[in-house]
Amino acid sequence: MASSSSSLTVAKAVPSRSAFPIHGSFPPSSSLSVPSFGLKPANSITATSAARRHAPIPIRASAAVETLGKTTDTELVEKSVNTIRFLSIDAVEKANSGHPGLPMGCAPMGHVLYDEVMRYNPKNPYWFNRDRFVLSAGHGCMLQYALLHLAGYDAVKEEDLRNFRQWGSKTPGHPENFETPGVEVTTGPLGQGVANAVGLAVAEKHLAARYNKPDSKIIDHYTYCILGDGCQMEGIANEACSLAGHWGLGKLIAFYDDNHISIDGNTEIAFTESVEARFEALGWHVIWVKNGNNGYDEIRAAIEEAKSVKDKPTLIKVTTTIGFGSPNKANSYSVHGSALGAKEVEATRKNLGWPHEPFHVPEDVKKHWSRHVADGAALEVEWNTKFAEYEKKYPEEAAELNAIITGQLPAGWEKALPTYTPDSPADATRNLSQQNLNALANVLPGLLGGSADLASSNMTLLKMSGDFQKNIPEERNVRFGVREHSMGAICNGIALHSPGLIPYCATFFVFTDYMRAAMRISALSEARVLYVMTHDSIGLGEDGPTHQPIEHLASFRAMPNILMLRPADGNETAGAYRVAVLNKKRPSVLALSRQKLPQLPGTSIEKVEKGGYTISDNSTGNKPDVILIGTGSELEIAAKAGDELRREGKAVRVVSFVSWELFDDQSDEYKESVLPAAVKARVSIEAGTTFGWDKIVGSEGKAIGIDRFGASAPAPKIYKEFGLTVEAVVAAAKQLC
């Protein structure tokens, strides 16, 4: 706890925001003793009115406080915090683009976290047992870049700060894990970051429950997150935080930057709920730090209290002033998303007593932060020694955990995939998917996941495991409830926690509309998430057009860095899982049928990786009369049409086009061997929109599909009415050849 020499006020959250209706502020100068290096009294900064000020919170100048095992000089802390502020101000100003307000307001909590609390190794950003930090309010990314720079991360040098938001820089406009080592997840779309943080905390709790031993706590780290009012307004944040409370994620600590300002102005225009009461109802421990501007002891004590609560996540509401220190723009929307401007930067320098040139880090601040390089290396060495001892005592568990840490797949894992022959019984690919998931779970220790309240319909339960719950987190079936958006984002967090964790999540394919934003971040952040999407077409039948995907296949084919896979039978389903596991930096979407499908001759587990391949062909010299192309449940239709045309003397090639993206990855020679350019007679059939198929069939080919919403009826009737039949394929082929 903080020493008695400091004035400390940590208030438990109250159920209403009315006590501090609008942020203003800065405490009056009579209550603030400032450090001797020149910080102006806070009342020199314009506040909107006295009624908007916080209650006075005195701070002793240069008080030595001992918190969380560290001794810190307040004057040096103030200088460090202002360093963070001005690195952020200067970078945004140089770029003439960015969001300076959040870093200026959140610098105190950022300093305490990175300098006093978090355990990490700057020279190895991927050390396994590090604490994780997520800036859910990703627009304020200069806060994180400034902290990484001070802590000694090689990815963020001074030059990188000067190149903020520029082409090829390591400091993009929002945090990107694939661009900047030290950034855990990609954030920016509000609310997704805190859901990622829930996923990271799930991973820690799950792995700790599986691999820690009474004499060896080998997995022991926290997940910290800063989120703002915008994140709180997004529904995904509530979905994810509801699950975090249900799961009792005691090592998740979220800081709510309570500054009451969004782009449109004061949040009173649209957001007046009691956030703290809501989080208490969600099962969180809630603490209110009333003075986030310079209440360092309050922040420290809140973190210490949060760590003492083991069975709940903690929300620390930190009341801050956006743009703290700016005489004319603090506590206003104008400091949220625009550079301060040269005059206001100069005024802020004078106001905060900061006489330095842009991007300057004072020597005493630099020296103070430099210890993290040696300390971080020592932490990793200590952990490696501990793991070596663990490995001797528990070799089997250590081997599994090491595979999860490194991402190395077990030797021969692919042999676990089931195989099928044309004599195998017909089955829905959703059922075949369950066979594959259960086979893989036995050989891939990092595989875990679940469904958005549709497990019995998506067929995603792992039979060898129970449910991941608060008191049994070692289990691998994750019950997400009806929360598709947060389900996807939580899985992103799990995937980005460790290379060997392979999360999957499931719902009906049409409900990817609820989670598309998270799936896009999966693709952008190179997170290997397996999206198991069943009921993939009008073939689901009577549920009707609300549940029948039409445009969804095309929409995911348009999304970069994601694999859209639509297997036709058991072998292709196994092949789709093989591809999904092997693609470590691409998420995969598996579109699976509700209706039974036959096991087709010519399909192949291995050939799925080609994206498109020939399953039957009676032509010679790579010169078929016509090429019939199908995906998923319609490959059977194409195959039957091919048989009928051959009986009429045609040379017909039938091609399974399970993944456009994988086919695009192949060499020109391979593509020519499947779809020779000279053969213009091509017919495709797919129970979805024909949009995009001209790329495959060409201007002279024919695409059979559905370019309207579906209907409610038994599947065979719908297929017939929409013209998805063998007869339609045969007729189209005859028109072309």
Number of DSSP strand runs: 24
Q: Tally the helices.
A: 24
Low-confidence stretches: 1-71
**What is the global morphology?**
elongated
Instruction: Work out the radius of gyration.
Output: 29 Å
Spatially, the strands of the biggest sheet line up as 13-14-12-15-16-18-17
Tell me the distance between the termini.
83 Å
Catalytic activity: D-sedoheptulose 7-phosphate + D-glyceraldehyde 3-phosphate = aldehydo-D-ribose 5-phosphate + D-xylulose 5-phosphate
InterPro entries: THDP-binding (IPR029061), Transketo_C/PFOR_II (IPR009014), Transketolase-like_C_2 (IPR055152), Transketolase-like_Pyr-bd (IPR005475), Transketolase_bac-like (IPR005478), Transketolase_BS (IPR020826), Transketolase_CS (IPR049557), Transketolase_fam (IPR033247)
EC number: 2.2.1.1
Binding site for thiamine diphosphate: 139, 188-190, 230, 259, 336, 511
Description:
Helix 2 runs parallel beside helix 3, helix 2 packs across helix 9 and helix 15 runs parallel beside helix 16. The strands form six sheets. Strands 13-14-12-15-16-18-17 form a seven-stranded parallel sheet, sandwiched between helices. Strands 1-9-10-6-5-4 form a six-stranded mixed sheet, with helices on both faces. A five-stranded mixed sheet has the order 20-22-21-23-24. The relative contact order is 0.09. The chain has 24 helices and 24 strands. The termini are far apart. It is an alpha/beta fold and 737 residues long. The N terminus is likely disordered.
